[in-house]
Amino acid sequence: MAKIIVVTSGKGGVGKTTSSAAIGTGLALSGHKTVIVDFDIGLRNLDLIMGCERRVVYDFVNVINGEANLKQTLIKDKRVENLFILPASQTRDKDALTKEGVEKVLNELAKDFEFIICDSPAGIEAGAMMALYFADEAVVVTNPEVSSVRDSDRILGMLSSKSRRAERNEDAIKEHLLLTRYNPERVAKGEMLSVEDVQEILAIPLIGVIPESQAVLNASNSGQPVTLDQESDAGQAYLDTVSRLLGNHVDFRFLTVEKKGLLKRIFGG
Amino acid sequence: MSLLDYFRSTKKKTASTAKERLQIIVAHERNRRSGPDYLPQLERDILEVIRKYVDIPADQISVSLEQRSDELSVLELNVSFPDEKR
């Protein structure tokens, strides 16, 4: 049975799509057949982050409406074996995703894939609710910043009350905290909430901490999921995250400031 | 941290302010979530009734439902009246 993981946050711009792309790619790199589904109807962007924007022919809504089948619609990644993308539609019709339609597509994907990553849109509207409704696990992407933490808490409330698992009184969605854009230097200066602070407030287990990194923008500029840049701090932090998702114990890295030379210590910088 | 920072004033760090503010608002919002859906509407209705008689601002009323045990829930209503100097 496939595992459905929603990548969600409430707040926009915290790194949901970057994280979906990075985690999905990491899972495929570890040999698990994975599909990443873009739920952001009307604001499709996963294709751009994955570098397959020119290969989109059909989309999620076409499949729901029976205008195309999954085989025609899924985009196979050219770099990584076992990795597929289901692009969102660019329609402006807000009600394009129906619960029945989404369920049908997810059931069909579940026959073929080990992991289904649902890249949620921002907000708490229908699209975001649809992305989390069928989930078994949730990666809550949070920046160490007040509005993001508050919105994450809001989404945690939705996960425990508005999901299918909640409606059916099944085991709750397994929640994971993924802290992104983490800047240990600013944390050391007392200018940024620390991992411990955010964890204390949200009270869910930590799955990963991604340092603020040049590599993330470079990756999106070139349409490469950041996990393919295995030299980079962010790429490595995402690979650690994937390993933890798969149940391995991996120590956390990139949480503290790198040691500076004497001159830098005196003059700052 | 550079040497110069040691000479700067040691005012409260913003991260700890952020944490305190978040702890308060998140606790407040969780409390609200755990209550029944009708609570906000009930709060507005009660406010309207009171406003027929006394002019009070919207933030001067708070309604909460507390589950004391399996059989007992307590609806708590707090209204602060303004000072009337007539």
TrEMBL record, chain A:
GO terms for cellular component: cytoplasmic side of plasma membrane; cytosol. The keyword Cell cycle applies. One of its GO terms (molecular function) is ATP binding. ATP binds at K11, G12, G13, V14, G15, K16, T17, T18. It holds the Pfam family CbiA. Keywords: ATP-binding, Cell cycle, Cell division, Nucleotide-binding, Septation. The keyword Iron does not apply. Gene3D superfamilies: P-loop containing nucleotide triphosphate hydrolases (3.40.50.300). It comes from the Bacteria. One of its GO terms (biological process) is negative regulation of cell division. ATPase required for the correct placement of the division site. Cell division inhibitors MinC and MinD act in concert to form an inhibitor capable of blocking formation of the polar Z ring septums. Rapidly oscillates between the poles of the cell to destabilize FtsZ filaments that have formed before they mature into polar Z rings. Interacts with MinC and FtsZ. Belongs to the ParA family. MinD subfamily. This is Septum site-determining protein MinD. It comes from Alkalimonas amylolytica.
TrEMBL record, chain B:
GO terms for biological process: cell division; regulation of division septum assembly. InterPro entries: MinE (IPR005527), MinE_sf (IPR036707). It comes from the Bacteria. SUPFAM superfamilies: Cell division protein MinE topological specificity domain. The keyword Cell cycle applies. Keywords: Cell cycle, Cell division. GO terms for molecular function: identical protein binding. Pfam families: MinE. Prevents the cell division inhibition by proteins MinC and MinD at internal division sites while permitting inhibition at polar sites. This ensures cell division at the proper site by restricting the formation of a division septum at the midpoint of the long axis of the cell. Belongs to the MinE family. This is Cell division topological specificity factor.
